[in-house]
Amino acid sequence: MVICMKNDISPNSLNPSSDTFADISNHFSLQYRKFGFLILCAISIFTFRSFVVERIVVFGDSMSGSYENGSILLSQKFNLGNISRYDVVVVSTGKYNAIKRIIGMPGETVKIQNSIVYINNVEIRGVFGYAPGFEGTWHLANNEYFVLGDNRAISIDSRSYGSVLFDKILGKVIFQIFPLNNIGYS
To answer: Residue 15: CA atoms inside 13 Å, Cβ hemisphere, count?
Structure first.
């Protein structure tokens, strides 16, 4: 009597061969590679977020006109030696982080008189040259910046807390994510 089974078992299939162990080994190797890739991705994301770019949410109206309350921005956290006049930066005021615009550069003298901003006695023309409500003169050292909010009538900025040291500049705003109608490079 001959019995036919759907899955025929041969004597060789009962003894594991090196090919079977190789298949198992390859399976586990693939799993370890996937796990390693996930760990590498997590480390990369952490490093990128910690040292390269940070997401910033605008709170308040001191930058109204450029960035509204609730706007979401990306801030570049490296290569800050490349800061220029009119760049928007994230600064630490000691009590909180604020988003402000660079007006005065190291070594310059900033004067506000009759709501007009002067840099080294030269009037700044246009919207960045208007600063109502405060008057004064600030002499900036070689590592100091003068920052103003774009909504100068209500902004608390260098007119209130003085110049900002370079090491208190935490990042430079490079991109706006939200609201979607304003998405783009800053």
So the answer is: 3
d(CA 132, CA 152): 7
Domains defined for the chain, CATH in brackets: 53-180 (2.10.109.10)
Amino acid at residue number 83: I
Nearest-CA neighbor of 110 among 122, 101, 99, 100? 122
Amino acid, res. 96:
Y
Which tokens belong to 78?
């490296």
Give tens-digit pLDDT for 129-183.
888 878 999 999 999 999 999 998 899 999 999 999 999 999 999 988 888 887 8
pLDDT in tens, 3-44: 544 555 555 555 555 555 556 556 567 677 777 777 776 676
In whole angstroms, what is the distance from residue 3 CA to residue 11 CA? Answer: 16
| Gap between the Cα atoms of 165 and 175, Å rounded | 24
Report the candidate in 102, 110, 85 with the shortest Cα–Cα distance to residue 169. 102
Coil, helix or strand at residue 142? coil
